[in-house]
Amino acid sequence: MRIFYRALNWYKLQCVCPLGFLSAARSRSRSSGGLSEAGGTSYPAVVSAEAPPKLEIAREPNAQDVRVVREAIYAYNRSKAGDQRYEPLAIFLRDSRGGLVGGLLGSTYWQWLTIDFLWVAEDLRGRGHGRQLVMAAEGEARRRGCKHACLDTFSFQAKEFYERLGYLAFGVLDDFPAEHKRYFLRKKLGT
User: Fold this and answer.
1) pLDDT band at residue 57 using 50, 70 and 90 as cut-offs
2) Are 141 and 108 in contact (CB under 8 A)?
3) CA atoms within 13 Å, Cβ hemisphere of 64
4) What pLDDT, in 10s, does the model give residues 83-93?
5) Which of 31, 108, 154, 189 is the most exposed place for a label (fewest CB within 10 A)?
6) Structure pTM?
7) In 3-state terms, what secondary structure has residue 151?
8) What share of the chain is helix, strand, coil (3-state, %, to 5)?
9) Is 60 exceeded by the pLDDT of residue 123?
10) What is the mean pLDDT of the chain?
């Protein structure tokens, strides 16, 4: 009968006590060999494997922590969609002295080309160099087995440029930033 009353009293304690009190009672119970004393009554201890997780906003995240998060989501994604066959893509445009005057950065995975950055030096724009960089990226993506391409651009950047290359807008975020828009575009890559 005593065990029944202990369990009943513990149940009542769980229902009416604030969480802070239960945490304190749990820590006291660990140091008292499994029973906690509250108001002269003994209650069976609830042993937690560890404290609840705490949030941390990291201004300068540890590289290992970032790697753990990435690898965890990559493993989950592989379990659902197969190996993504991720490969970074970097194409550079150089002047006659070897100086960098343009470039495209992106990646390929799951048969998609993703263009993250496209830049051409301002004094060289309008001469077909941006088109050349995008066409080279699409060609390399096809070689890697990609069937689609996607990118995003802002209203103050190059939406019309990408549309001339066959990209179609499929989404937009207003006020990103301020009075501008952020567009998301895609293209089916021919073989």
Assistant:
1) very high
2) yes
3) 0
4) 999 999 999 99
5) 31
6) 0.70
7) strand
8) 35, 30, 35
9) yes
10) 83
Token digits for 93? 């445009």
Q: Where are the alpha helices (DSSP H) in the chain?
A: 2-16, 19-31, 63-81, 129-143, 159-164
Give yes or no for residue 75 having a pLDDT over 60. yes
Predicted local distance difference test score (pLDDT) of residue 191: 64
Domain residue ranges in the chain: 2-44, 83-188
Which residues, including other chains, have CB under 8 Å from residue 147's CB and lie 6 or more apart? 111, 112, 188, 189
Q: 103, 95 in Cβ contact below 8 A?
A: no
> What would the DSSP string read from start to end of 58-84?
-SS--HHHHHHHHHHHHHHHHHHH---
CA distance 39 to 16: 14
- CATH value of 83-188 in 3.30.70.3270, 3.40.630.30, 1.10.10.10, 3.10.129.10: 3.40.630.30
Cα–Cα distance measured from residue 189 to residue 159, given in angstroms and rounded to the nearest whole number: 18
Q: What token pair was written down for 6?
A: 């202990």
Angle at 100 between CA 96 and CA 102, to 5 degrees: 110
Stretch 160-171: mean pLDDT: 98
